[in-house]
Design goal:
- About 70% of the residues lie in helices and about 5% in strands.
- The chain is of the alpha+beta class.
């Protein structure tokens, strides 16, 4: 940035003065040795002044750049003027509403919503103003400190009697500091003014919101009282005077004129909105070709207009709760809800199990649309009473008709009781109207129908979101995503249910007139404090914990599946290595999620360190074995002496590694038994891994033949049997070896290589059978062990018995 002319001149003069002062300082060795203590102090003061003469001009330039970067509050002040005028208009409307006995809850709710919208706008304006004030306050303190330092240097120079040498420099620096302070003050004034005006309007809005809340509370209490004569009495209908009818017609005419005038003034915006809805209709209709008839999205794609209007209306409702909400009149915000009510009635069959439920809900929702239109127009409440009462009478008659017909055609008690339950609402309204509790009847009518609408809307949003997500995943460019589309939807569905459940609860609080807006309901739900063992827990913090944990596990599972199914197989990574990498990624994501969770809960680095120290002490005393297995699991994952799929032998057990965890490893034996082996035993003990580097193994078959057998014939038969077996590898070649002269046989051994250790027993059995058959054909005898018994001494009685037996056997042979 180019320096101003005045600033550049001041810097030039300061540098020249410093140069002449430094030249005038004595520099000979004799003079240096004879310096007094004040002269040393003077030199130090000159060095400090020199450093400040370089620093303050640079700081002034940085300050000017900072002033250009802060938020300009001039625009805020102009917007505050419009907001203040709107608040004044609202104040007058609220005063009129307090004195109007026929004011409806919808009109009061509209006033409360407008106040909440203004409050949100003021908070958006107040945030940068507060940031500016805090920054300017800090900068002003810094420049005030610089002024104090220069004042201290001037006093020190006067004490030393050298003020004439540095007066010009100090005057120049004082000028720079005053310029900086003046620059800050110029920015402080408008920011403080804006903050003051925002605070005043916020106070006014708070008072008005409190007033509207009091009126609503009075109305809620008033609705439980008897406010009019019975609907069956002539007194009630005497209130239908000509003036009242004329007033209703005039209200309808003025409402229509105002809306048409606003429509003419905003033709372009309305046209753009309709164009966007038409484009959305086209997209929804085109998506029908991308899904099957059994898909969740297919019923919505079959009704593109209703689905597009539902998406547009729901999106508008969500946007209307954010700071970027459109600036629409309250009547238009209320009118925008009518298309949503109509399309919910059309799409109700997508969430209903029986046709009669769909028909019933559709008619109920349409009744709510008519009632909502009466509230928007602002017709006299007497018309609303009449509509609600006689619609309830017709509804009760219709329900009784359904009950009678189904009683004849069906014996299902569930359907009968469901219809009786539906009869409760019109029956309650009729009884309330007959007893003169008209406002209570309208209150119950509106709340129940609105709650039915909200429930249907939330169910439709859940079905639509699941179907749309499934449609997008099934047509994703990544094959892995397409293959696991259903699984991904099932994983995300609980989060959708939780989010939409919270939305349903917030809207319910608004429908029940407990909170004025959805935002206020969310704030109320998430800010409830519960004390547990001295800790303050809020639903908001619990939701944060649940969301982070859920998101961490879902993200970890999805990334692991993507790695194992797409990335790692593409590069030819072995299965065991894939499992090891995916597990390491899983634990890394869990660790990151854990620290993010601690950060979101407000834990600092020092607190995490203390927590880690406490965990270390606890682990050292009570969890040594678990930590030993944990560390051993990490060693197995990094060094990979054992991988998933390896055939290992540990002790007397031989089996395949099925799962390699951080605490233990699961090995499946050939008997289909799963052995859980702690990881520490695999690290500290002796383990035979038959398939560490490759699955190819050598099989040895010992064979013994009788003495006198042709050795070359035996070797030839062994090699021919090995060559005939398809499981025996030709490279390395099989070998038949004559090993030793045994006690009863000539000992041979056949050594062959097979491609898989798991086939060892099968190959051994087949080769043994082939060898036995070939030996039998060749007349080769496989001897059994023979032993010669030599008797050195024997008892005389035994000798006589043996001799007698020998003589008898000779006689038998001679006679034969």
């Amino acid at each position: 940035m180019k320096l101003p002319t005045t600033t550049s001149r001041i810097i030039t003069s300061s540098v020249l003065c410093i140069f002449f002062l430094l030249v005038s300082i004595p520099c000979s060795g004799e003079e240096e040795s004879t310096k007094t203590e004040p002269e040393v102090a003077q030199a130090l003061s000159l060095i400090e002044i020199y450093s400040w003469s370089n620093k303050i001009p640079n700081d002034l330039v940085d300050l000017q750049n900072q002033m250009e970067g802060i938020t300009n509050v001039a625009e805020h002040l102009s917007r505050l003027t419009n907001i203040a005028a709107e608040v004044d208009d609202l104040e007058w409307e609220i005063i009129m509403a307090k004195s109007d006995p026929n004011i409806s809850y919808h009109q009061l709710s509209s006033l409360e919503s407008r106040l909440a919208k203004i409050n949100q706008q003021l908070e958006v304006l107040d945030t940068p103003v507060k940031s500016n004030v805090m920054l300017l306050e800090r900068l002003y303190k810094e420049w005030l400190e610089r002024q104090n330092v220069l004042h201290a240097l001037r006093i020190e120079a006067e004490k030393q009697g050298k003020i004439d040498d540095v007066a010009e420099i100090l005057d120049t620096l004082d000028t720079l500091v005053r310029n900086g302070q003046q620059t800050i003050e110029e920015q402080i004034k408008p920011n403080l003014q804006a903050g003051k005006e925002i605070g005043e309007i916020l106070t006014q809005v708070y008072v008005l919101s409190d007033t509207v809340s009091d009126v609503i509370k009075d109305m809620n209490g008033f609705s439980l009282q008897q406010t009019s004569p019975s609907m069956l009495s002539p007194t009630f209908y005497q209130r239908l005077e000509k003036k009242l009818l004329q007033k209703g017609w005039e209200d309808l005419r003025l409402f229509s004129q105002y809306q048409l005038r606003y429509l003419n003034q905003n033709k372009q915006g309305v046209a753009m909105s309709l164009l966007a809805i038409c484009l959305l209709v086209f997209v929804v209709h085109a998506s029908k070709k991308l899904v099957k008839a059994s898909s969740k999205w297919h019923p919505f794609a079959s009704r593109p207009v209703a689905t597009a209007v539902f998406i547009a209306s729901a999106s508008f409702g969500i946007i209307n709760t954010t700071p970027i909400r459109p600036d629409l009149p309250p009547e238009w915000e209320a009118l925008s809800q009518l298309p949503l009510i109509v399309v919910v009635a059309i799409l109700a069959k997508n969430v209903c199990h029986t046709p009669w439920q769909s028909t019933l809900l559709r008619r109920v929702v349409l009744l709510l649309a008519v009632s909502h239109l009466f509230s928007i127009i602002g017709l006299p409440q007497l018309f609303t009473y009449l509509f609600v009462f006689y619609i309830s009478v017709l509804g009760l008659a219709y329900y009784l008709y359904l009950l009678r017909r189904r009683w004849k055609n069906s014996s299902s008690t569930k359907i009968t009781w469901a219809i009786w339950l539906w009869c409760c609402l019109p029956l309650t309204i009729i009884i309330s109207g007959i007893l003169g509790y008209d406002q209570f009847a309208v209150y119950i009518f509106g709340i129940v129908l609105a709650e039915i609408l909200v429930s249907l809307m939330i169910l439709l949003m859940l079905e639509m979101a699941s179907g749309l997500l499934e449609c997008m995943l099934l047509n994703a460019p990544v094959a892995t995503v397409r293959q696991n589309a259903t699984r991904i939807v099932n994983q995300i569905t609980p989060a959708l249910i939780l989010a939409l459940g919270l939305l349903w609860l917030a809207i319910t609080l608004m429908v029940l007139r407990i909170r004025p807006t959805v935002e206020a309901a969310f704030i109320a739900m998430t800010s409830i404090e519960l004390s547990l063992f001295g800790l303050k827990i809020t639903p908001g913090s619990v939701l944060i914990v649940v969301f982070i944990c859920y998101a961490t596990f879902v993200f970890s599972r999805g990334l692991r599946a993507f790695l194992q199914q797409t990335i790692l197989p593409r590069y030819g990574v072995e299965l065991g290595v894939q499992v090891s990498i995916s597990r390491l990624v899983h634990y890394a994501i869990l660790t990151i999620g854990f620290f993010v969770l601690l950060k979101m809960l407000g834990f600092g680095l020092s607190q995490i360190t203390i927590l880690g120290g406490a965990l270390g002490v606890g682990i050292g005393f009570g969890l040594q074995a678990i930590v030993n297995n944990f560390v051993s699991g990490l060693i197995l994952l990094f060094e990979r002496p054992i991988k998933v799929g390896d055939m290992i032998e540990i002790g007397m057990e031989v089996g395949e590694v099925k799962e390699l965890g951080l605490r233990a490893t699961i090995v499946q034996t050939f008997d289909n038994a799963e052995v859980v082996i702690p990881n520490s035993e695999l690290i500290t003990g002796r383990v035979t891994n038959w398939t560490l580097s490759e699955k190819r193994v050598r099989v040895k078959l010992p064979v013994g033949v009788a003495y006198g057998t042709d050795i070359s014939a035996v070797l030839k038969i062994l090699l021919s049997c090995a060559g005939a077996n398809p499981m025996v590898l030709t490279k390395p070649e099989p070998k038949a070896l004559f090993l030793a002269f045994g006690a009863s046989s000539l000992d041979f051994e056949l050594r062959v290589w097979i491609p898989d250790f798991a086939e060892g027993l099968v190959v051994r059995s087949e080769l043994n059978q082939d060898i036995e058959a070939e030996f039998d054909l060749a007349g080769i005898e496989i001897p059994f062990p023979q032993t010669d018994l030599h008797l050195r001494s024997i008892d005389e009685k035994a000798i006589k018995v043996l001799n007698r037996t020998h003589e008898q056997s000779k006689e038998v042979e001679q006679n034969s």
